[in-house]
Each structure stands twice: as C-alpha cells, then as structure tokens.
Amino acid sequence: MMRLTGISRTALWIALGLACAFIGCSALDDARRGYPIASGPLGEVGVVDLRDLSTTLPSTLPSTRAATVPTTLPIPAPPAEITLTIEQCRQWALANNLELRVELFNPTLSKQAISEEEARYEAVFTGRAGYSIIDSPVFSRINSAQSKGLTTDAGIKIPLRTGGSIGVDLGLSKFESDNEFTTLNPAYSSTANASLSLPLLRGAGIAVNAIPLRLAVYDYQSAQARTKLEVIRVLADAERIYWRLYAARREQDVRRKEFDLAVAQMERARRQVKAGAAAEVEVVRAESGVADRVEAVIDAENRLRQRQREMKRVLSVPEIGLSSPTIILPSTPPDALYYRLDSAQLVRTAMGKRMEMLDEELSIARQSASIDLARNDLLPLVSLDYTYSVGGLGGTTSDAFQVLRSKRFENHTIGLSVEVPIGNDAARSRLRRSLAGRLQALASKENRASLIEKEVLDAADQLDVNWQRILAAQRRVVLAARVVDQETRQFIAGLRTSTDVLDAQARLADAQSSEIAALTEYQIAQIDIAFATGTLLGRSKVVWQAAPPPRD
Fold first, then answer.
1. What does the DSSP 8-state code read for residue 276?
2. Which helix (H) or strand (E) holds 192?
3. Other residues' Cβ atoms within 10 Å of the Cβ of residue 36
4. Which of 10, 247, 370, 464 is 20 to 30 Å from the Cα of 382, by its Cα?
C-alpha cells in the first residue's frame, strides 16, 4: 500500500473527522429533488402584487438567562439559534435602525413650521397702563403746577390674511391737578378706537400672504417623501441581506453534501481496491478529492458567518450582537414563480409613486412660489391707514362712558403712505435667482425621470434573466445528477477512475450552487423592481408614521 506523507495523513484525518460530522442523507437524492416551480400571469402590474404576507410578527426574541452569580445581576444569555422569517426581518430592521429613528423626526419638525406660519394670523391682545405724578414750576395760574394721571388701555389686534391688520382698543384715564380753572377735577376720559391698515400693492392679497405657509407645507411634504424613501431603503437592504444569508446557508449545505459524496467515493474506492477490482491509486485520488472538499466547506462556512454578522448588524437586536454565537436560520422559502411584466405600466407606476419624483415636483412648486413672491417684491409699498375714534369725558367713570356711548365726539383719520425703492436691484436679483432655480428644478426632474425609467427597465430585464437562469440551472442539476449516477456505476464496473467521479460530483455541486444563486438573485430582482416602482412598502405590507412630537 502506498505510504502517505505527513501532510497527506493530516489532510486525511481532517477529512475523516469532517466526514463523521457531516455525513447524512444522500446528496444525490437532494440534487434530483430540485425546487418546485409554478408559472402563471402576474395580474395587473404583476411584479408588485406578490404573495400575501400576513404572518403575525413577534415583538421580542426568545432569550434565556445565565445562572445567577453571587454579587452580580443575572445576565441574559443569547439564544443558541433563532428562526427568522422575512416578516420578522422587516420588523426588526425598521424598529431598530438608528439612522431611520433619526429620520422619522424630520416630518415632525417640518410640521411644526406649518403651525408657526398658521399662528401668524392669530389675534393679539394688547394692554397698557401708566401712572404719572408731575410737579413743575409755572409762570401762570392758568397752568397746573402739580398733577396726577392714571391711564389704562386694552385692545385686540387681528392680522389679516390679505395683509395688514385691524385693531380695536378701549382706553380710560383719570387726571387731577391743582389748577383752579379746571372744569372737572378729577376728570375721567374714555376713548374707543378702531383702526385698519391695508397694503395696496406690495404684500397685498391672500395669494401673496399665503406663500410662506405654502412653502412650509412643501417642506413638510418633502420631509415626508425623504423619510419614506429612507424607510424603503432600509427595508430593501434588509430583504436583500436576508436572501443572501439564505443563499449562504444553502451554499454551505451544498458543499457539505459535496464533501459527503467525496467521502462516499473514498470508501467505495477502498472497497474496490480491497476486492482487487481497482488499483491503489484510486484511493489516493479519492483522498485528494476529500481534502479539496474540506477547503470548499471551510470557505462556505466563512461566507455564512460573514452573512450572519451582516444580518445581525441590520437587525440590531440587543440579544444577538455581532459577536454573539447565535445562529440565524432563514425560514421563508424563495418565491420561485414566473411573472409576466408590462414594462410600460411599470414605468408609469414608477413615475407616479417614486418618492424622488415627488420630491422633484415639490422642488418645482417651491421655486414657483418663490417666483411669485419675488415678483410681488418688485412693487412699491403703498399702505392705506384709517382710524375711527370716539371720546368721552366726565367727572366720574360712568359719566365718561355715558358720553362715549352717545357718540357726541367722533374723529376720522385716513392716510396713505408710499415707499418706492430707487433702482430696486435687490428685488430684481431675487427674481432672477428664483427663475434660474425653477429652470434647474425642471432639468433635475427630467434627469430623474430618465434615470428612474432606466432603473425600472433594467430591473425588469434582470428579473427575466434570473428566471431563465433558474430554468437553466435546474436543468443542469438534473443532468449533473445523472452524470454522477453514470460515473459511479462506471467506476464500480472498473471503467472510470475516482477522478472522473469526483469531477462529476464537483459539476453537480457547481450546478446546485448556480441554482441557489439564481433563486436568490430572482428574489432580489423582485425587491429591485418593487424599489424601482416605489411600491416596496405596499409589497411588504409596511405602514410607517413619523415620530410623535414631544409634549409641552
């Protein structure tokens, strides 16, 4: 029998150890089994109306607790493994993402700006009170040397949505002096005033005065669109990572089963050599094949660990940190159904539902409102002011108000003020800047529409290509499994070598890996189409809301 070197013996012992750990059911039967595939029309748009997902989502992970250590608090131990559905993945990714938690406050902040603009038209109560004592030298007995006065005034000022304001106030004052010629001492006087101030050109009209409120509404809607886009991005990333984790686990299974087949071939070669039906070199070839499969298994397990770590980072669940030994087992099977797509309808849907397009429309609306405001700033400032007042006087408060009610003393005042900037270059510059901004927003919208259309069409083509890859890979798996059967029988009959059998097994494993990759990319292509058309939240049955504002 051929003597093995130290390296060969070490590889053989590693192979035999892994064989004891990984040998299970026949990999050949699993390769023949394949994946169930159905075909049929997708319906209206197709790609966004996928399988109904209505699984109840648990709110917490199961956890165990370590034994209580004296003088220390109980420390929760991470679970050994968790079974993760795609619904749970979505829930935890959205609930625990720190960047998304920050973004959810943006609509709340922008909404408060709307309240601030609406508060500009709230009525304002005004009040004033004053008391004076005067002692001054005089040169005539007609003038007062000493006097006391008390003045009070209260009113309401109401801003108008058309610009300007209305004011109403009522005043009462008391006056005492040492003047011997004073008719009433003390004297009480009352006044009632009503005033109106209106801009006639600049700042006049509801349309102009509503522009700040319109801008605040546009900003709020834009904040909602950007936050919704962030929710969609987090959700899409989580789903893509979920399916890549699924692929990594399936790939590990394929490489383990490939190793099992290599070990089975090694045992078969030993029996053939022992029976004298094959040369001893067949055992060496089989052992070499087993050693090669060990490296493939190690690489697959390393990729699986990396995918699990990436999944843990996305989930951000405290019980399963990045360094925890918890194993994540994806339990949702891939949706291997054929979808017939209408590319034109997909593009129309994307133009109506993509948050980027909504943000571009809001940008154009903001620039248009800024243009209206800049045009109004070019006008002169012309204001009309009118005041109507009624006065009353008496020896008592009641006498003063009685005279006031009789309207014996009425005053009318009207005035017109004009302010015209000389040159008005600042207002013209603001107008030109607003016009240029609107042109830029229109160009940005056209560019965004072109990019979205390309993204949708590319995603639709990729979905079709991945479906074709699934069909081709499944055909390869079936044929590769037959080749393995034939090569194994030919080896038993002494017509093939172990190398031929191992090569056939390697091609089978590669075909299975291609099928897994095609299935995974098909799922990711569905996510990409839902993302490209702006329908990912509806597809995933996710409803989001902004963070509530803090209490006063």
1. T
2. strand 187-199
3. 8
4. 370
Tokens of 234: 């987090």
Please, are residues 37 and 522 in contact by the beta-carbon 8 Å criterion?
A: no
Q: Which residue has tokens 């299970």?
A: 24
Cβ neighbors of 454 (< 8 A, separation 6 or more) are none
Q: Tens digit of pLDDT for each residue in 269-291?
A: 898 888 888 788 888 988 888 99
The b/e string for 265-291 (b: 16+ C-beta within 10 A; e otherwise) is bbebbbebbeeeebeeebbbbbbbbbb
Distance, in Å, from the CA atom of 197 to the CA atom of 166, rounded to the nearest integer, reads 7
The per-residue pLDDT for range 223-274, each reduced to its tens digit, is 999 998 989 999 999 999 999 999 999 999 999 999 999 999 899 889 888 8
User: How many residues comprise the chain?
Assistant: 552
3-class DSSP state of 401 = helix
Please name which of 213, 214, 202, 196 lies closest in space to residue 160, comparing C-alpha atoms: 196
How far is residue 173 CA from its own chain's centroid?
62
Q: What is the 3-state secondary structure (H, E, C) of 202-254?
A: CCCCHHHHCHHHHHHHHHHHHHHHHHHHHHHHHHHHHHHHHHHHHHHHHHHHH
pTM: 0.71
Find tokens 């007062």 and name the residue.
144
Rounded distance between C-alpha atoms, residue 225 and residue 221, angstroms: 6
| Strand partners of residue 330 | 84
Count of C-beta atoms within a 10 Å radius of residue 213? 18
Dist. CA 415–CA 200, nearest whole Å: 13
Look up tokens 């909602």; give the residue. 224
